[in-house]
Amino acid sequence: MITVFGSINMDLIATTERLPKPGETVAGNGFSTAAGGKGANQALAARRAGCGVRMAGAVGKDSFAVPALALLKDAGTELETVKTVDEPTGTALILVGGDGENMIAVVPGANGTVTADDADRAVGAMSEGDILMLQLEVPVAAVERALAAARAKGVQSVLNLAPLIDDAARLGRLADIVIANETEFERLAGQENMSADEREAALKRLNGETGQTLIVTLGADGVIAIRDGLLSRAKGLKIEPVDTVGAGDTFCGYFAASLDEGLEFEAALRRAAVAGSLACLKHGAQPSIPLSADVAKAL
Ligand code: RIB
């Protein structure tokens, strides 16, 4: 069973031929809304991978609350630990360019009301052998308490270091497993503009110092990871991306679900990387998360 402690958003998505520069206006060629939020996306990915999932977080009392949770509900995710508050449901304003790249501004709303007490409740409800998944879209104090509570209880924690915030490096030290993109990993390692060799050396150094399992996602180049001193690499699929929003979340959810199922570490990385690739082939964060049968076929 996986508990995801994190954000729930409604994504407001405009597609454009190319992304605007600061101060520029470009014409859009499509608009849609979809359920999103890094926490909710990761929860749905883990659920679609076949795992039991409980989501802990917050939504508002506005008209976005129901659609933001709809796919999680349809998938059979436990939602009793999602509280309803007076702040509006979190929103993300997303632009997707013709090459599949994106720009995102997130307005936390209800996500900003998630507290350390909520963290205690979420971790308190977990059982031995469960996995706790977190990201950095709810307040730092809540994430920090959840990580501390997980450690005290002996449940494994997986922290996705996204989006990059000032406290990322400090929080990153508190998790058992850290998943980061290149920039986020550089913050964790305390060095900018790393070459591939420097990244590998930093992975070995940090793993040696902390014993943490570290995974760095490299976009089209797959992932590099270290666990118990051993480096691993995994590739996704060769694809032409149409929309990369939610691909990282799909990787995280599938990875955690695969660990929960008892897959070997390298097999879990490969399955997650393939799921992440498939998530780039459709628009929208949650609508694009593949079902486990589709991932199995692509593997
Ligand atoms: O990682 C993608 C997610 O980031 C989107 O769904 C959006 O809500 C933002 O939180």
List the helices and strands and how they pair.
Elements: E1 2-5, E2 9-16, E3 28-36, H1 38-48, E4 53-59, H2 65-74, E5 82-84, E6 90-96, E7 102-107, H3 116-124, E8 131-134, H4 140-153, E9 156-160, H5 168-172, E10 177-181, H6 182-189, H7 196-210, E11 213-217, E12 223-227, E13 230-234, H8 247-261, H9 265-278, H10 292-298
Helix pairs in contact: 1-8, 3-4, 8-9, 9-10
The protein binds alpha-D-ribofuranose.
Overview of this structure, please?
The structure is a single chain. With 299 residues, the protein is of the alpha/beta class. The protein has one domain (38-66, 75-87, 112-298): UDP-N-acetylmuramoyl-L-alanine:D-glutamate ligase (3-Layer(aba) Sandwich). 36% of the residues lie in helices and 24% in strands. The chain contains 10 helices and 13 strands. The chain has helices at 38-48, 65-74, 116-124, 140-153, 168-172, 182-189, 196-210, 247-261, 265-278, 292-298, and strands at residues 2-5, 9-16, 28-36, 53-59, 82-84, 90-96, 102-107, 131-134, 156-160, 177-181, 213-217, 223-227, 230-234. The strands form 2 sheets. The protein has a 9-stranded mixed sheet, sandwiched between helices. It has a 4-stranded mixed sheet with strand order 3-2-6-7. Helix 4 links the parallel strand 8 and strand 9 (156-160). Helix 1 crosses helix 8, helix 3 runs parallel beside helix 4 and helix 8 (247-261) runs antiparallel to helix 9 (265-278). The longest helix is centred in the C-terminal third of the chain and has 15 residues, at 196-210. The chain is globular, with a radius of gyration of 18 Å. The protein starts with a strand and ends with a helix. The model has no long low-confidence stretch (mean pLDDT 96). Residues 7, 9, 11, 36-38, 41, 92, 104, 106, 137, 245-246, 248-249, 285 line the site of alpha-D-ribofuranose. Alpha-D-ribofuranose binds next to strand 2, helix 1, strand 7 and helix 8.
